[in-house]
Amino acid sequence: MEELDEVQRYEFKKKLEEIKACKGKHTELISLYIPPDRQISDVSAYLRNEYSQSMNIKSKTTRKNVLSAIESIMSKLKYFKKPPKNGLVFFVGHKEAEAGQSEMVSFVIEPPLPLNIFLYRCDSSFYTKPLEELLEEKEVYGLFLIDRRECTIGMLRGKRIELIDHLTSRVPGKHGRGGQSQRRFERLIELAAHEWFVKCGERISEIFMNEKNLKGIFVGGPGPTKLYFLESSYLHHEVQKKVLDVFDTGYTDETGLRELVNLVAKKLENLKISHEKKIMDKFFKEIVKKKDSMAIYGEEEVRNALEKGAVQTLLLSEDLKKYRVKLRCNQCGYNEERTVDEKEIEKLEKQCKKCGGAMVIENKLDLVEELSKKAKERGTKVELISTDSEEGQALLTTFGGVAGILRYRL
Ligand code: ZN
Q1: pTM for this predicted structure
Q2: N or C: less crowded end of the chain, CB within 10 Å?
Q3: What's the 331 CA to ligand 1 centre distance in angstroms?
Q4: How far does the centroid of ligand 1 lie from the alpha carbon of residue 329, in Å?
Q5: 210-257, pLDDT tens digit by residue?
Q6: How far apart are CA 203 and CA 313, in angstroms?
Q7: What class does CATH assign to 6-134?
Q8: Which residues contact 64 (CB under 8 A, 6 or more apart)?
């Protein structure tokens, strides 16, 4: 299956969040999934049947809402000769709005990847699971660190490092009293170590066998214990087969997971996380230059350079959570754009600077989408940066989440 590009993925995710947030008072929200090969006439016939069934709904308001949702879908279907190549999904119904009111919402979605299911569902929320599965991260690697004291198990999903489990052992140290009792003591230690490795092997195998997208496993830890563990078949053979590489790390705790991923990213250049680290490295190298730096940051500076076509790579934090709002005065036609966060939208100053009249919000765009669109129009490469790494955190907090690498200096 082909993969979505980063910006498509981001936009699609936002849309799904909006759809998921809709709640019906009763079971009156309709989700309809149509596969690419289904005839529109079949779907219409199906809906007519649902329509007559729904006339039996006891509650008058619910009945009215369900019927009008089905009518709405039927009328929209008329515009399609056949479903688009990836299929078609409708989400239509009355969602709860302020002060006990309800509001009709309607989303028509063409899935970004082929979706081969036919499904009709009427519920108090929209059914988005099949679409969410399209967004599931496919680049998944298992991680674990092991020595005789600790074992940390994690997952690398795309650019995100996840801590899954952390086990600690009670295997005693190797110091003893010498003589007869020393040998007995050592045997006990080896027995305890064996039990510890069995326990770790079982837990690691259990976790990784349940991960359907697992592409491989990376192993870390200080010293030779990890190699002994791997050579002694403590892992389930299916899991053992997936071990790709072993690295020396200083830690076996959560810090070790990040250490391990850094080592992996340096060695394997095709991973998403390697790509992100490389770009951020390039940005940091430029930013520290005292002379002729090609790095810029801050929304205003970047927007300005972007409009001139001077930006080669645009770096945007996935966690910006800001909007670009366009305000327009109804009386004199004056308009202006502003960048705000969710809270600021509510209390926007809407008095017109020119005539003192009232301005209205003409449109509201997610800042990531707005800047990405601008960049694409000018051949600028867009990189969405997660906040899962230290570099990504720095982009958001130190550089305001918007930065760029220039083609030429301004
Ligand atoms: Zn005005």
Answers
A1: 0.76
A2: N
A3: 5
A4: 5
A5: 998 999 999 999 999 999 999 999 999 999 999 999 999 999 999 999
A6: 43
A7: alpha beta
A8: none
